[in-house]
Amino acid sequence: MNNIDPKVLVTAMSAIGAGLAAIGCIGGGIGTGNAAAKAVEGVARQPEARGSIISTLVIGAAFSEATAIYAFLIALILAFK
Description:
mainly alpha; F/V-ATP_Csub_sf; 2 helices; single chain; rod-shaped; F1FO ATP Synthase; transport; proton-transporting ATP synthase activity, rotational mechanism; 86% helix; hydrogen ion transport
């Protein structure tokens, strides 16, 4: 059987996990971009609803960016463990 040092294995798995967690940052950027595009489209179609569209956009962007920040923090914790 192959004798792998457990400390090396944990370090390697932490690096892989950090890379996978960093993918969540990409999702946050894509989500915020899609939300902004749809908000601009909605304001262009109904300018009188601008206030409610923008407030909904800000709330949605905050949730999307919070998810990306959590993924980034997890990636940092795993990378520097």
